[in-house]
Design a protein that fits this description.
two-stranded antiparallel sheet; single chain; 5 helices; 2 strands; mainly alpha
Length: about 100
C-alpha cells in the first residue's frame, strides 16, 4: 500500500515551536481570553500591549498571554493597575 509508506516518514510536529508565528485579530483574542472588545481595547492602551497592524490591531502570542494573565488577575480580585503589574512581574519571572 503506497499510503502506508508515505506516512512512515512523517514525524510529530511540536506546535509550541511555532507559536511565535501566530497572529490573532482583536476578536480572536477576545474569544480566547473571554473578554469584550471594549475591555481589550482599554487594556491594550492601559498596559501598552504591543500590537501590529494599521487598520486593525494584530496580537502575537506574547500579547495574548499578557491579556490572559491580566484577566486571571482581575478574576482574582485585583484592580486593573494591579493586574497589569502582576502580569508584567509574572512574565519577567518566567522568561
Amino acid at each position: 500500500m503506497v499510503v502506508g509508506r508515505q506516512v512512515d516518514f512523517l514525524e510529530p510536529i511540536n506546535l509550541a515551536d511555532h507559536l511565535d508565528k501566530v497572529e490573532l485579530y482583536l476578536g480572536q483574542v477576545c474569544q480566547i481570553a473571554g473578554i469584550s472588545k471594549m475591555q481589550l481595547d482599554y487594556w491594550t492602551n492601559k498596559a501598552q500591549i504591543p500590537t501590529k497592524g494599521k487598520k486593525q490591531r494584530i496580537y502575537d502570542i506574547n500579547a495574548l498571554e499578557t491579556v490572559m494573565l491580566i484577566k486571571q488577575a482581575k478574576d482574582k480580585g485585583l484592580n486593573l493597575g494591579a493586574a497589569i503589574d502582576a502580569a508584567r512581574r509574572f512574565r519577567e519571572q518566567n522568561r
